[in-house]
Each structure stands twice: as structure tokens, then as C-alpha cells.
Amino acid sequence: MMPPCRQSQIAQINPTASITRVLIPCLVAAVWLAGCQAPAKPTIRGTDPRLVRPTLQARSTAGNSVENRPIETIVLGNGPKSVLVMATIHGNEPAGTPLAEMLAVHLTRHPTLLAGKTVVIMPVANPDGMAANTRGNANGVDLNRNFAAENRENTPAYGLSALSEPESRVISQVLTLYQPDHIVTIHQPLNCIDYDGPGQQLAEHMAEYCDLPIRKLGARPGSLGAFAGDTLKIPIVTLELKPNDHTLPESQLWDRYGTALVAAITYPRAAPSLLGQ
After folding, report:
1. If you compute the radius of gyration of the chain from its CA atoms, what whole number of angstroms results?
2. What is the domain partition of the chain in residue ranges?
3. The three-state (H, E, C) secondary structure of 157-204, written as one string
4. Do the beta carbons of residue 173 and residue 179 sit within 8 Å?
5. How far apart are CA 28 and CA 254, in angstroms?
């Protein structure tokens, strides 16, 4: 055995070798620990690609709500025929919002559907009501009774004057700017396809692609249906989803109603199958 004094002398003669013997095990341990603390990012399997939403450059803010939440529109295509699709004008009827968002993604991925069309999508027309889960906006006004229709009623619940609310003014501005050839607005929970103005043929076309029956409910006072359909003579369809549709996974919602929404875009042409898309 080498005497302790000799070991000390060797360490002094070759300090690098001594340091190396100490550092190498430490470095190995550090690398091993780092690997345990920061594992490789796992691969997500089985994700429905329809739910992976890309950033839509066509998204912009058309205006703001009472509580200053943005009211966004997504504008796709630049053809001469214009289509407006709108959801959640009643804040406690939210199932239409994911459908509208998924429609925007689908049209982005399948741009041939936009041939000759400009499609304007408003996913949330009443963001304050949606945040509070209330039918009306933050002022307690039913926005779907606040338009300048011939049958409107001035009341606290419907607004003391037409377009008294910032949200309905934004919708009116969008109508003026894009002059839609037809309109689809998504509601709950009446489980039917309603229409106003000259919208019967569009309603019948959409009904071919989902299980909702056509039911003429009649234009409510100051509603968008009364204003756009009866006053402005724009074909307008109200897609009334089922009461519990907002509890469904987005993919199931799209499977139920996606083709009917695409049919509203391709109208009067048939809608292609969405199987596997």
C-alpha cells in the first residue's frame, strides 16, 4: 500500500488527474438527473385534427361589448356572394360557438368551398352574456329583440330604442359592410330549423344534412330574423340546436351539424361529405 505522504505527493504532481476523477462522476450524475427532471415531450396520439385550430389570420375585432369584450369576426374568401354565420347572440345558448369556430377551420382547410363566396363568421355575438351565462347582455337587454324591425317593441328588456346596445350595433355594421346574400344564426334549445323572410329554400337545403325538422316559429319583435328577413328581405335561417348540445364534445357537435353548416356555404349546390375531414 502506498504511504499517505506518497499519495499526497502524486496529487500535487498531477492535480488534473485528481480533479478529473472527481468531476466525471459528478457530470454523469448531473446529466442523469437532468434527464429525469426534463423528459422528452410526449407524443399526443389520437387527437382529432378537426379540433386543432390554427391561428386564423382572417380574425379581427368588429367592435366591443358593454363590458369591453371583443366581438370578433372571421372573414374568409373574397367572392361576390356573401354569407354571414353567427352564434351565441343569446349568451346562455353557447353550443353554436364551437360549431362556428370549427366551420372557420374547415373552410380554411378546404378553400375550394369558398369559390365565389365571402364568408363572415361571428362566433360570439354576445360575449358578456356568454361569460355570465345569461340570455341578455350586461345591460340585461335581449340582443335578438334590439333591431330596427318593423315589429319591434321598445321595452327595458328589448331596449328602449332600436340598436341601443353596442353588440347589436356591431351586428348591424357587419350587415351594412358585407351585405350578406343569406344569413345563418345558431341558437338553442328548440330543436328545429326556423327561417324568416325568403329563407325557406335555404332551410330546406340545410335540413337535408342534419336531423333537425323545419318549423316556422314566426319572427319575434325586433329580432334579427324580423329585421334581416322581413324588413331587408335577406334569407335567414335559425339553426335551433337541441337543449343539451352544449354538453357534447366538439367533434360530436361537428358530426351532427357540420355538414348542414357547410351546406349553407355551398348553397344552392350540394355539400360534400365531411367523413374523415
Report:
1. 29
2. 4-37, 50-266
3. CCECCCCCCHHHHHHHHHHHHHCCCEEEEEECCCCEEEEECCCHHHHH
4. no
5. 52
Name residue, grid cell 379581427. 60
The closest alpha carbon to 118, from 71, 177, 170, 173, belongs to 177
The CATH number given to 50-266 is 3.40.630.10
* pLDDT tens figures, 60-105: 999 999 999 999 999 999 999 999 999 999 999 999 999 999 999 9
pTM, entire model = 0.79
Strands 117-122, 70-76: pairing is: antiparallel
DSSP classification of residue 270 = P
Using alpha carbons only, give the angle 233, 188, 163 rounded to the nearest 5 degrees. 50
Residue type for 104, please? A
Q: Are 121 and 104 in contact (CB under 8 A)?
A: yes
Neighbours of 21 (CB within 10 A): 9
